[in-house]
Design brief:
It contains eight helices and six strands. A six-stranded mixed β-sheet has the order 3-2-4-1-5-6. Helix content is 39%, strand content 16%. The model has no long low-confidence stretch (mean pLDDT 96). It is α/β, with parallel strands linked by helices. It has a single domain, classed as Rossmann fold (3-Layer(aba) Sandwich), CATH 3.40.50. The radius of gyration is 17 Å and the shape is globular. InterPro entries: His_Pase_superF_clade-1 (IPR013078), His_PPase_superfam (IPR029033), PGM_Phosphatase (IPR050275). This is Histidine phosphatase family protein. One of its GO terms (molecular function) is phosphatase activity. It comes from Limosilactobacillus fastidiosus.
Length: 219
């Protein structure tokens, strides 16, 4: 069994632009975000994919729709919405200034950005620390996240052998997947809006072939 998956980060939103924490909260795509989606659609026209999934959050769904409309080689009109591919839920910190959250959670350790915390602690420990700092207890920890995300991977693994799928998901979620499966990934660099991560799933392995690319490398 081998399934090829192209994970795509959604286009830029207004909360991305303003450096606000955006997990399950949602914001419209900016003009740049619309162009991000159209560009990645033209890039994915280089490959033939059989399925396209998206998180059920509107920024991912709308990115997927724009992507499909920009790909002249696909007959797929609508993404399959899969909640398992949602962004991490930041609970009390939803909508907060990203720098302020970094200072709250990581400032005393010398971390002042989300990327610095991810690089210093790893993405799973970062989730746990944010969840611990959430006074309402709503934020997802690493166990919550992977229990949900693994349901999405199970769905991908159950596709017909040889299938190629596109999944439109989110920055922190994609960075977590890369951190989990790609040794030596630079956590100081967040996946860009409209960037692509290619994975190969088999019965015995989950492999990241490339990460955070705006273009599909030539074979």
């Amino acid at each position: 069994m081998a399934i090829t998956v192209y994970f795509v980060r959604h286009g830029q939103t207004y909360l991305n632009r303003y450096n606000r924490m955006q997990g399950w909260s949602d914001a419209p795509l900016t003009e740049k975000g619309i162009e991000d989606a159209k560009r990645v659609g033209k890039e994915l026209a280089k490959i033939k994919f059989d399925y396209i999934f998206s998180s059920d959050l509107s920024r991912a769904v709308n990115t997927a729709r724009l992507l499909l409309a920009s790909d002249p080689n696909t007959e797929i009109k609508e993404p399959i919405q899969e909640p398992a591919f949602r962004e991490i839920f930041f609970g009390f910190f939803e909508g907060a200034n990203g720098g302020a959250v970094a200072d709250t959670v990581g400032g005393k350790y010398g971390y002042h950005t989300f990327s610095q915390m991810a690089a210093g602690w790893g993405t799973d420990e970062l989730k746990n620390r944010i969840a611990k700092a959430d006074q309402y207890g709503d934020a997802e920890d690493s166990q919550d996240f992977w229990q949900r995300m693994n349901k999405g991977f199970d769905r991908l693994r159950n596709l017909p052998d040889g299938s190629v799928a596109v999944v439109v998901s989110h920055g922190a979620a994609i960075r977590s997947i890369a951190d989990h499966y790609l040794e030596g990934v630079d956590q100081n660099v967040s996946p860009r809006n409209g960037s692509i991560m290619k994975m190969t799933l088999t019965d015995t392995d989950t492999h990241v072939d490339f990460y955070n690319q705006l273009h599909i490398p030539d074979k």
